[in-house]
Amino acid sequence: MSKLVKLKKGFDIKLVGKAEKKIEAFQPAQTFAIKPTDFVGMQRPKVIVKEGDTVKAGTPILFDKKLESVLYAAPFSGEVVEIKRGEKRKLLEIKIMADKEISYEEFDKFSETDLKSLTKEQATAALLKGGVWPQIIQRPYGIVANPEDDPKAIFISGFDSHPLAPDYGVLLKGQEKYFQAGLNILKKLTSGKVHLNLDQDSEVSPVYAGAQGVEVNKFSGPHPAGNVGVQIHHISPINKGELAWTVNPYGVVQMGKLFIDGVYDASKVVAITGSEAKKAVYTKTYQGACVDKWVVDNTKSDHVRVVSGNVLTGEKINHDGYLGYYDHQITLLPEGDYFEFMGWAKPTSTKLSFHRALGLLSFLSPNKEFALDTNARGEARAFVQTGVFEQVTPMDIFPVYLIKAIMAEDFDEMEELGIYEIIEEDLALCEFVDVSKHPVQDIVRKGIELIQYS
Amino acid sequence: MKFLRDLLDKQKPLFQKGGKFENLYYLYEAGETFMFSPNHTTGIKGTQVKDAIDLKRMMITVVVALLPCLLFGIYNVGEQHYLAVGEAVGFGEKFLLGLKLVLPIVIVAYAAGGIAEAVFAVIRKHPINEGFLVTGMLIPLVVPASMPLWQVALATIFAVVIAKEVFGGTGMNILNVAMTARAFLYFAYPAQISGDQVWTYLGEKTAVDGFSGATALSIAYSAGQSGESVTSALASHNSAIGDQLYSFANMFFGFIPGSIGETSALMCLIGALILIATGVGSWKIIVSGFAGTYIMGLIMNIFAANEFMAMPAHYHLVMGGVAFGIVFMATDPVSAAQTERGKWLYGLLIGFLTVIIRVTNPAYPEGIMLAVLLMNVFAPLIDYYVVKANKKRRLQRATV
């Protein structure tokens, strides 16, 4: 049964710098990188290539010794120029100097009738070999799925409700055929249903309009309505011992391309967003692209933070850093490393707040777009304010109690309070609105790891 | 403000690790962050921008919500004084007298508590707790103007140390800090905070004939003992000094003897509006607190074993410290129930208990103090059951 879920709780962070709906060409990136750190829960990454090797798009680069069957592929063809390690030889980046022309590894192509008769085992093998398996994320824990599992269902969130999020209609324009092929493959991987969850409040993008063989559910409400974790909670919550998989629509398309065209196609459209972007537009590139070309000459000041992803769950990267594996957006923000005289008492209408405490006037202009900087706006304290986390978490979960259970490393409490249902992004808004400035997402990941490895 | 920033930057190394005053770092930090919001930026991973609120702003909102009570309290101290000694003076003089009496109490509370905070911050090496901004204002408002300053100081230090700092500071305490200070005074120095003689400042002067100085609650209580109807007892006090001193309107507006900030239900309501509009105080606790008081008042009316019990239920809302206690004490986010459902029950029970203690406790007609403290202790239990219900839902779902 398809569902319509109306969510009231949550908060839309309206920011200046939404990407204009046009695709603009920047200078192509010269280097690409795979960052093992993008894959949450990857424990012992092992590099297959050496510096100086040449690779094609789709050549395996890396795998996790804990899950050896899953291969991570090169997004672009070229020469492996650097394998960068950090402290304790932690693997950080594998950089590829791009060829002028992209060349692809060749994989098996399937016709439509082939696709129909494909078994789960064949599909899995092809996905693994073709390097697209990491697009499948397992819940609980939010880690790359284990191909040997049988998930109770697969969930696809068809929209992104994060601040300044890109429009999937632009990202996936013209990919209907591949999207449907991807869905057909996914259906083989689960004994349950494949759920496609769409935004009730906006037009259905053409790429989803003809989607067949899947359960379509609609969601309406403020962020985090687009979070797949919130959607799962309302469609078919995850209990202890259950497994569900989630895939981003981009991943579905990538799977479709692998089966229909027989290539590992890592091309993607990325939104360049944020108040510091001179040109906030979409651009075509590939997974793991170096962001320098979009940042240089495209920022309004010198003191800019580049974030791969959105402002709630993204990661700060260098100005010549690399786009995160799962990201379709970079955000350019003003750095906020300044002191502000009486900043805690001064009335302000330029800073966004979910609260309305004295002098916080942003609630007076609910539709205004704000240009926020990265100032932390206060110091860390113990939990004081109550009830606010619940207002931004549209799930039957008590976030404060869950966070406290994690801090106390109380495993039973964590389980009973719903640790299996969330990953960092689901409580990211709590981190934003928190008066006491707790690192909520870090705490959530710590809790997940405690449960996962216990 | 650059010179100030430069000055702070110049002093900073002295207080940082290896500096001369390394131990006093948190004192420096308190001053610095008071004047300048820090230049900290968000971390590498996670939320890259933050909501504009911080704890300091939240706490100062409560202080602002308390200002109507404070200002009216200052005026009323003067008003009651001149009423008692039978002199007719202007607004300015009443206010000035009130200021002369109340300001030292406020200063002493802030100073004594501030020192206790600072000592703990230095020894325990934690930042100075902003919660004290509120506590330091609440304590003066729940004592009579005649309270000796040393007792104010002692009670404040007791409350800050025993009710808060030993638990780890703001956010970790179990009991409402200001209510603990008042309870301390009540049990340690009952002569200065109960009876009929402490609520009105007389100074060197003598009171006019017929002056009793009693609070509305104690009149109601003795009426209950003697079998006179409470409303007529209040009315007969009216005639003794001033016109209609204990009329319902006077009790609502607050022109009656009592603790400095507690007498005016109207000012408490203005404070409540500020707290609710800003979302700093829980409207659920405020609404259910008043509702609980009124409902239990009605229940008492049904039994009406004595005249106090028969008193019209709405009188409970304007007498004594109920309004102040519900609006500013019960809503303390740390010691109150923390779940949204729990808040309803928590407020309701505070209202119930307040009235029960009022009409049945022979020693002390004011019930809100004990009701809030008692419910502070039970709040985690209420939350426990609310959270347990959530866990149960989750478990039941698993078997389906």
TrEMBL record, chain A:
<keyword id="KW-0813">Transport</keyword>
<keyword id="KW-0739">Sodium transport</keyword>
<feature type="domain" description="Na(+)-translocating NADH-quinone reductase subunit A C-terminal">
    <location>
        <begin position="269"/>
        <end position="317"/>
    </location>
</feature>
<keyword id="KW-0830">Ubiquinone</keyword>
<comment type="function">
    <text>NQR complex catalyzes the reduction of ubiquinone-1 to ubiquinol by two successive reactions, coupled with the transport of Na(+) ions from the cytoplasm to the periplasm. NqrA to NqrE are probably involved in the second step, the conversion of ubisemiquinone to ubiquinol.</text>
</comment>
<dbReference type="InterPro" id="IPR008703">
    <property type="entry name" value="NqrA"/>
</dbReference>
<protein>
    <recommendedName>
        <fullName>Na(+)-translocating NADH-quinone reductase subunit A</fullName>
        <ecNumber>7.2.1.1</ecNumber>
    </recommendedName>
</protein>
<dbReference type="Pfam" id="PF11973">
    <property type="entry name" value="NQRA_SLBB"/>
</dbReference>
<keyword id="KW-0520">NAD</keyword>
<dbReference type="GO" id="GO:0016655">
    <property type="term" value="F:oxidoreductase activity, acting on NAD(P)H, quinone or similar compound as acceptor"/>
</dbReference>
<comment type="similarity">
    <text>Belongs to the NqrA family.</text>
</comment>
<feature type="domain" description="NqrA N-terminal barrel-sandwich hybrid">
    <location>
        <begin position="5"/>
        <end position="99"/>
    </location>
</feature>
<dbReference type="InterPro" id="IPR056147">
    <property type="entry name" value="NQRA_N"/>
</dbReference>
<dbReference type="Pfam" id="PF05896">
    <property type="entry name" value="NQRA_N"/>
</dbReference>
<dbReference type="Pfam" id="PF24836">
    <property type="entry name" value="NQRA_2nd"/>
</dbReference>
<dbReference type="GO" id="GO:0006814">
    <property type="term" value="P:sodium ion transport"/>
</dbReference>
<keyword id="KW-0915">Sodium</keyword>
<dbReference type="InterPro" id="IPR056148">
    <property type="entry name" value="NQRA_2nd"/>
</dbReference>
<dbReference type="InterPro" id="IPR022615">
    <property type="entry name" value="NqrA_C_domain"/>
</dbReference>
<feature type="domain" description="NqrA second alpha/beta">
    <location>
        <begin position="118"/>
        <end position="263"/>
    </location>
</feature>
<keyword id="KW-1278">Translocase</keyword>
<comment type="subunit">
    <text>Composed of six subunits; NqrA, NqrB, NqrC, NqrD, NqrE and NqrF.</text>
</comment>
UniProtKB/TrEMBL annotation, chain B:
<comment type="subunit">
    <text>Composed of six subunits; NqrA, NqrB, NqrC, NqrD, NqrE and NqrF.</text>
</comment>
<protein>
    <recommendedName>
        <fullName>Na(+)-translocating NADH-quinone reductase subunit B</fullName>
        <ecNumber>7.2.1.1</ecNumber>
    </recommendedName>
</protein>
<dbReference type="GO" id="GO:0005886">
    <property type="term" value="C:plasma membrane"/>
</dbReference>
<feature type="transmembrane region" description="Helical">
    <location>
        <begin position="367"/>
        <end position="387"/>
    </location>
</feature>
<keyword id="KW-1133">Transmembrane helix</keyword>
<dbReference type="InterPro" id="IPR010966">
    <property type="entry name" value="NqrB"/>
</dbReference>
<feature type="modified residue" description="FMN phosphoryl threonine">
    <location>
        <position position="215"/>
    </location>
</feature>
<keyword id="KW-1278">Translocase</keyword>
<keyword id="KW-0812">Transmembrane</keyword>
<feature type="transmembrane region" description="Helical">
    <location>
        <begin position="252"/>
        <end position="276"/>
    </location>
</feature>
<dbReference type="GO" id="GO:0016655">
    <property type="term" value="F:oxidoreductase activity, acting on NAD(P)H, quinone or similar compound as acceptor"/>
</dbReference>
<feature type="transmembrane region" description="Helical">
    <location>
        <begin position="315"/>
        <end position="332"/>
    </location>
</feature>
<keyword id="KW-0285">Flavoprotein</keyword>
<keyword id="KW-0597">Phosphoprotein</keyword>
<feature type="transmembrane region" description="Helical">
    <location>
        <begin position="344"/>
        <end position="361"/>
    </location>
</feature>
<keyword id="KW-0813">Transport</keyword>
<dbReference type="Pfam" id="PF03116">
    <property type="entry name" value="NQR2_RnfD_RnfE"/>
</dbReference>
<feature type="transmembrane region" description="Helical">
    <location>
        <begin position="132"/>
        <end position="163"/>
    </location>
</feature>
<feature type="transmembrane region" description="Helical">
    <location>
        <begin position="283"/>
        <end position="303"/>
    </location>
</feature>
<keyword id="KW-0739">Sodium transport</keyword>
<comment type="function">
    <text>NQR complex catalyzes the reduction of ubiquinone-1 to ubiquinol by two successive reactions, coupled with the transport of Na(+) ions from the cytoplasm to the periplasm. NqrA to NqrE are probably involved in the second step, the conversion of ubisemiquinone to ubiquinol.</text>
</comment>
<keyword id="KW-0472">Membrane</keyword>
